[in-house]
TrEMBL record:
Gene3D superfamilies: P-loop containing nucleotide triphosphate hydrolases. The gene is recN. Residues 155-281 form a coiled coil. Keywords: ATP-binding, Coiled coil, DNA damage, DNA repair, Nucleotide-binding. May be involved in recombinational repair of damaged DNA. Belongs to the RecN family. The keyword Transferase does not apply. CDD domains: ABC_RecN. PANTHER family: DNA REPAIR PROTEIN RECN. The keyword DNA repair applies. Residues 2-512 form the RecF/RecN/SMC N-terminal domain. This is DNA repair protein RecN. SUPFAM superfamilies: P-loop containing nucleoside triphosphate hydrolases (SSF52540).
Amino acid sequence: MLNRLFIKNYALIENLDIQFNAGLNIITGETGAGKSIMMGALGLILGNRVEGKHFFREDQKCVIEGFFKINTYSLQDFFQENDLEYDDETIIRREIAVDGKSRAFVNDSPVTLHVLRLLGEQLIDIHSQHATLQLNTERFQLMILDNVAKNQTILHDYKQNLAQYKLQEDSLNRLREDIAVANAELDFNQFQFDELDQAHLAEGEQEKLEAELSQLENAEEIKRALMRANLLLRESEQSATFSLKESLQQLQSIQRFMPSAEELAERLQSALIEVKDIADEVSAKEQDVFMDEGRLVEVNERLSLLYNLQKKHRVDSLSELLMLRDELEQKILVVANQGEQLVALEQEVAKCLHALEQAGKRLHDARQQAIKQVEHYVQAVLAEVGMPNAQLKIELSLLEIDKYKTTGADDVRFLFSANKGQPLQSIHRVASGGELSRVMLAVKSLVAQTSALPTIIFDEIDTGISGEVALKVGEIMERLAGNMQVLAITHLPQIASKGQAHFKVFKEDEGNKTKTDITLLAKQDRVLEVAQMLSGANPGVSALQHAKELIER
């Protein structure tokens, strides 16, 4: 609900501060008095863009503030999502600097125009005679049925099922894409893995083979060196062992004369034993070394295989080949596991789809049951406001499950005929602006009985009606205002007389400037205003009496 509107330095408005009533607020004034200026200012705090500079005084900024009571609108989540401080009385402010740049604030927190527009849509609904508004949209038409049917719980359940189905379906599609990519690579990965697996690679094998190859290629030279070493250690007359034995005998022969020679003899004895051991090992190794052409070919072939595999896979070592083999094996296993995941996820999607289908059907059935109530109510109200032959028919068709929407599982059409003999057609094709306004008035009065609607502003929707019809429109606005705040800008006395608060917009000259102002009319002033609307600037006694009767009626 709009509690208060403050406008400073905007167009012809110098300072304006209006306190609105919670029910039906009437705004009247001569053509050109400034009612459209007020609507323009209000539009700015609802997120409209600034078109040029509109300043009463060019050297001062423009400030527009709206004070809204929002405790019944369940907007806490919106404020939390947009990181705004929530307050039951929320203040929206728009400032336009002298250079034309503007800033917007919600409870003193700066916001973008997008956020301001989203919030504004939930606070005020401006309904003009030439605007088709939401009535032509499927979303609004379904909202009417859901409100009348009290579908909030069913609709919430449907949306949860739809969200869960979409989530699982997205997961399934991603998995299928992953599997398609993996399968495209599977044959190649399997070929590479088989090649590496069949090579029976072993860690450290390459180093051992390279050492063995070196020995096989130099077997003759190795054998010759070992034989010569053995000869020098033990076989020749001047061998190391022979010389050590002779030296040992000499030391032993002088031990009785030179006791210290005993220690030297013992040391020499140890050296002799070590040399004999070395000679034995050299002899054994020499026996083991021989030319094996078959083994040489075998080692060369094995090493060639290892080298070729490394070159082919662009790695530098056998260890990297082993790592590649393990990676390929893992990729192949993943494809096998993805197949199992795919089956499980397909089953989950089918389960979610079934639950969604059931939720969509429940929502459809509940909406179907509300159709007659909406049709009868709207036609009854239209008959009240001078359209006795108007017909409204609502067609609701259940969609195929793959075409379900966030609004539900239905396609909806509001078919309308204003006159006898006129075929029913989509409402936006056949309803004039005035007719559409009256249909909207009927719909809003119905919906307002079951939900908290935002403040609605009827901006001169009374064009083309008069007399008793205008009186009925006023009465319906009056009923509508029992459940929500209504602002009605009107030129008709029948509607003006119904307000709980009546504001008059007027122009006045101040020095060399003209400015727009607004005032809340007291009872007697209100009678005069309605009388002037009935008969002109100087109403007679009968006009004043008629105005008084209208107001008191």
